[in-house]
Amino acid sequence: MISIMVVMALISTPITNIDLTGFTEREQGVWTDEQGLILSVHFFPLVPDLPAPLHETDRLQHGLARSVARAGGGLIEAVPGEVDSVPAVRQLVKVRRPNTEHGLAFLASWTVPRASCSTVIKVQAGERGATGMREAFIGARVGHENYFRPHPYGPDVQGGLPYHVADFEEWDAEFPDHPLTLVRGALRRIVPTVVLEEGFKALPPFGPPATPRRRWFRRP
User: Fold this and answer.
1) CA-CA distances (angstroms) from residue 38 to 24, 33, 73, 192?
2) CB of 115 closer than 8 Å to CB of 127
3) Residue 217: inside a domain, yes or no?
4) Residue 100 binned pLDDT confidence (cut-offs 50, 70, 90)
5) Could you tell me which of 9, 8, 13, 35 has the C-alpha nearest to residue 24?
6) What percent of the chain has pLDDT over 90?
7) Quick one: DSSP state of residue 3?
8) CA 131/CA 92 separation, integer angstroms
9) Alpha helices in the chain (DSSP H)
10) pLDDT digits (tens, 9 = 90+) for 114-136
11) Rounded to a whole number, what is the largest CA-CA distance in the chain?
């Protein structure tokens, strides 16, 4: 494991250690590797904008899927879990590459929310060269009628990029150099090495905003 305690202090995140094997720093908080992966870490001193508490899985997944679709992308998965024993949510998102007619970029992230702030570890990569090969191959394999699926997080998730079986993890072994395979694998390898500051871990947990109590009477 490569210690980046000093670097993390400079960019003010609560991450004190992370395994950066294979990555080269490009700027503060951003690293790249030879496969085109971009790894970045972030800290947001704001109440997290997650649509639901992490334990309300269905509402969390539904809200995230709708939010990503409204922005023109597609949520492949959102799964609650832990980073260094702190509750967190993993997301895998696909978006259109900016300023290009074809091709997608894939973003895999863990968001670690607390009551008034959050930290995020993100890995992203875009298609290069010929695009759509994974989708075309798998579409031919399973047939058009089995390719597209309703979004599992809600039938009302509309717009954005479609949900389909080519994004499933079961195909990653057949496409080891695809950006989706790479970001999914990199996040799985890196996040277990993350160490968070004890002070951050001790902060109040993320939860729903307080709702003012309604008075059952009105004063005249």
Assistant:
1) 10, 7, 19, 18
2) no
3) no
4) confident
5) 35
6) 82
7) B
8) 19
9) 5-11, 57-70, 133-142, 144-147, 179-190, 198-201
10) 999 999 999 999 998 889 999 99
11) 72
Q: Among 159, 149, 153, 152, which Cα is nearest to 62's?
A: 153
Q: Which of 50, 54, 49 has its CA nearest to residue 88? A: 54
d(CA 45, CA 27): 21
Residue 191 belongs to what domain range?
5-201
Task: With a cut of 90, say whether residue 77 has pLDDT above it.
Answer: yes
Locate 190 and state its tokens: 């890196």
**Distance between CA atoms of residues 57 and 55, nearest Å:** 5
Which position has the token pair 């001193």? 45
The amino acid occupying position 82 is E
- Token match 């990569």: residue? 125
Check residue 128 and give its pLDDT: 86
Q: What is the pTM of this model?
A: 0.88
The pLDDT score that the predictor gives to residue 98 is: 83
Identify the CATH number of the domain in which residue 156 sits.
3.40.1000
Mean of pLDDT over the chain: 90
> Are 107 and 92 a contacting pair, CB within 8 Å?
yes
